[in-house]
C-alpha cells in the first residue's frame, strides 16, 4: 500500500442506531438466509449490506445459476432449506428455469426477480435491513465483541448485538479483529459478467462449459486467434440466457489475473479491467462476427470475486474430505458440485469429480481427460461441510459463513458455489440463535441440536 503519512482522527461519540440479538454483516444470499433462519426462530436480527440490494454475486455480480440440489446420481435430494424455498418462490413468476441432471447447472435465475424475492424474505421474517451501509470497524468492550461501526447516508453509527455473523465473503469483520486467516497468492481470479442482448442462435449448450454458440463465429477460437489484437487474456467462458428471454444472455467470459480483491486499489483496477475486457470481447464479435447484433444491457455493480481470505476455524475442510465424501457428525451442509479450480497461473479450469475422473478444460483446445485416483466399485455421491468450519474461535459470539470459511484450495474449488454456501448461512443463523438462547459460546452449541433444528426448518440433514 502506498501511504503518504497519517492523519489523526479525533475521538467522538457515535450514536447507537440499532440493537438486536443477532447482527449479520453481509447481504449475499448466504447472509440473508442466516438472518431469515434466525428471525424465524424468534431472534431479533439486523442485516448490513454495502450494496443497494441483497443477493451478493448472484444479483450484484449477475451470476444467474445455482447448481444441482441432488447428489451426483441425481436420485437423492441433498439440499433443501431456503435455497429450495427461493427456487419455488421464483418459479411462481417464471423467474427460474431448471436444467435437470446437469453437473454444470441446476437452475438458471432471473436475478432481478431474485433481488425482490430476497427483499420479501427479509421483510416477512421481520429482519431489520440496512442497505447502502458500509462496515467500518468492530467495537470491543473488555475484550468482547459488542458492536460494529457502520457508515451510510445518515453518517456514522453503531449497531449493538449479542451475536455476530460475518457473511461478508471477504471476512472483513474477522480481518479487522485480526483473527488468523489464510490469504494466499494463488487465489482463483475474479470475473466480470455482463448481460448482453442479441446473443446466439438459441441452440443447445455444452454440458461442461455451458457455452452457447454465436451466429457464424466460434467464440473460443476467435478469442484465441484475436486475443493479442484486443488485449484479452485466455480464460474460460460460459453463460446462460435469462429465463423467459430468447436473446438476453448472461456471459461470464472475462478473467482478471493477479487481482487481490481485498485490497482497495487492486479491487478498483480489477473492476476497470473487467469492464474493459467485456467491451473488448464485444468489439471482437462486432468485427469478426458481424451477423451478431450485440447490445450491452447490464454490467455488474461489482466484479465476481471468487476468492480472497479464508478465516482459520476449528476445522479446515480438505480436498481429501470432499473428494472421498467424508461424513461428519456435525455436518450442516451437503454438496455434489465437482471440484472446479479457475487457475491463477494458467488459462482454463481443472475439474475433479467424486468418481475419480479429472479434466482440464482450456477453451479452444481438446479437453485433457484423466483420473485423480484409480477406479473403484463404489464412489461417494456427495460431500459435507462440518459446523466446525464456521467457528473462528477467540470470540464466543462470532460465526462465519460463505466463501471465507476454513477450507483448503481443493475443497474450496467444490464447496464455493452458492447452493453450498447458502447452507452455511442457514447453519450460522440457527447456531447463533441456539447459542443466544442457551447463553453459551457458539463453540458449545450441540451439533445434534443444531442439525435437528435445521431439519425442522426444511434443511436436508444427512
Automatic annotation (TrEMBL):
Keyword Membrane set for record: no
Gene Ontology molecular function terms on file: 4 iron, 4 sulfur cluster binding; metal ion binding; oxidoreductase activity
SUPFAM superfamilies: FAD/NAD(P)-binding domain
Keywords: 4Fe-4S, Iron, Iron-sulfur, Metal-binding, Oxidoreductase
Signal peptide boundaries: none
Domain of life: Bacteria
Descriptive protein name: FAD-dependent oxidoreductase
Species for this entry: Paenibacillus whitsoniae
Amino acid at each position: 500500500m502506498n501511504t503518504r503519512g497519517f492523519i489523526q482522527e479525533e475521538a467522538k461519540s457515535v450514536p447507537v442506531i440499532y440493537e438486536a440479538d443477532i447482527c449479520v454483516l453481509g447481504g449475499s444470499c448466504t447472509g440473508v438466509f442466516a438472518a431469515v433462519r434466525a428471525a424465524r426462530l424468534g431472534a431479533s436480527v439486523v442485516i448490513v449490506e454495502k450494496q443497494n440490494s441483497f443477493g451478493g454475486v448472484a444479483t450484484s455480480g449477475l451470476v444467474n445459476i445455482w447448481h444441482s440440489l441432488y447428489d451426483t446420481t441425481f436420485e437423492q435430494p441433498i439440499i433443501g432449506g431456503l435455497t429450495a424455498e427461493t427456487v419455488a418462490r421464483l418459479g411462481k413468476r417464471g423467474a427460474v428455469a431448471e436444467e435437470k441432471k446437469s453437473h454444470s447447472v441446476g437452475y438458471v435465475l432471473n436475478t432481478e426477480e431474485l433481488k425482490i424475492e430476497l427483499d420479501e424474505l427479509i421483510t416477512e421474517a421481520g429482519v431489520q435491513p440496512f442497505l447502502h451501509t458500509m462496515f467500518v470497524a468492530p467495537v470491543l468492550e473488555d475484550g468482547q465483541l459488542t458492536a460494529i461501526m457502520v457508515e451510510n447516508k445518515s453518517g456514522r453509527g453503531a449497531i449493538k448485538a449479542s451475536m455476530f455473523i460475518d457473511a461478508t465473503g471477504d471476512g472483513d469483520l474477522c480481518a479487522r479483529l485480526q483473527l488468523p486467516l489464510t490469504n494466499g497468492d494463488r487465489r482463483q481470479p475474479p470475473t466480470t459478467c455482463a448481460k448482453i442482448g442479441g446473443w446466439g442462435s438459441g441452440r443447445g449448450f455444452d454440458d461442461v462449459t455451458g457455452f452457447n454458440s454465436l451466429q457464424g463465429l466460434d467464440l473460443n477460437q476467435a478469442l484465441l486467434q484475436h486475443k493479442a489484437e484486443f488485449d484479452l487474456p485466455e480464460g474460460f467462458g460460459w453463460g446462460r440466457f435469462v429465463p423467459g428471454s430468447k436473446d438476453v444472455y448472461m456471459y461470464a467470459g472475462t478473467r482478471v489475473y493477479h487481482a487481490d480483491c481485498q485490497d482497495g486499489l487492486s479491487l478498483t483496477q480489477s473492476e476497470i479491467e473487467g469492464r474493459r475486457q467485456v467491451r473488448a470481447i464485444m468489439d471482437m464479435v462486432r468485427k469478426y462476427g458481424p451477423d451478431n447484433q450485440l447490445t450491452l444491457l447490464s454490467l455488474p455493480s461489482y466484479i465476481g470475486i471468487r476468492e480472497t481470505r479464508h478465516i482459520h476455524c476449528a476445522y479446515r475442510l480438505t480436498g481429501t474430505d470432499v473428494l472421498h465424501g467424508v461424513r461428519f457428525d456435525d455436518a450442516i451442509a451437503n454438496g455434489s458440485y465437482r471440484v472446479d479450480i479457475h487457475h491463477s497461473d494458467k488459462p482454463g479450469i481443472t475439474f475433479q469429480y467424486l468418481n475419480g475422473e479429472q479434466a482440464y478444460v482450456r477453451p479452444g483446445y481438446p479437453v485433457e481427460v484423466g483420473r485423480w485416483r484409480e477406479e473403484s466399485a463404489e464412489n461417494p455421491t456427495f460431500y459435507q461441510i462440518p459446523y466446525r468450519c464456521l467457528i473462528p474461535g477467540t470470540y464466543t459470539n462470532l460465526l462465519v459463513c460463505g466463501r471465507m470459511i476454513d477450507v483448503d484450495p481443493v475443497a474450496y474449488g467444490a464447496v464455493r458455489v452458492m447452493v453450498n454456501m447458502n447452507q452455511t448461512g442457514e447453519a450460522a443463523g440457527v447456531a447463533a440463535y441456539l447459542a443466544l438462547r442457551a447463553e453459551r459460546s457458539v463453540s458449545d452449541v450441540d451439533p445434534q441440536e443444531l442439525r435437528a433444528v435445521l431439519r425442522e426448518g426444511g434443511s436436508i440433514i444427512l
